[in-house]
Design brief:
By secondary structure, the chain is mainly α. The protein is built from 5 helices and no strands.
């Protein structure tokens, strides 16, 4: 559950970050370039995904701890995005491997232990 929530937050913040006009991008994937052409729709979509993730975290951890954890997750993921995006260190295959490894670990510790 947490892996999926963090993936939702990461994808929403990645779209929001790429909609920024202040950041000078060297090279973006074609799909991301097309997606971020409509900035208002992208920001609304990102906000909707963030709201869904907030609701899921509040259901999982409770309202007080969920809101606090949601802000902590957002700050951590934004730091990671700002740090890794200019260098283009994380590629699609790297992210897919990290998400799959986290999902396998989460499922194995949650349901098999």
């Amino acid at each position: 559950m947490y892996t999926i929530i963090l993936l939702l937050i990461f994808s929403a913040l990645l779209i929001w970050y790429n909609c920024s006009e202040r950041v000078k991008f060297q090279e973006r994937p074609h799909w991301l370039e097309r997606l971020t052409q409509r900035k208002k729709i992208c920001k609304l979509f990102s906000g909707f995904i963030l709201l869904i993730s907030l609701i899921l975290i509040c259901l999982e951890q409770g309202i007080g701890a969920g809101i606090f954890a949601w802000f902590i997750y957002i700050m951590g993921i934004l730091c990671m995005l700002v740090l890794f995006s200019p260098y283009q260190i994380l590629k699609r295959n790297h992210l897919l491997f990290i998400v799959m490894a986290c999902l396998v670990l989460e499922i194995s510790f949650t349901y098999l232990a």
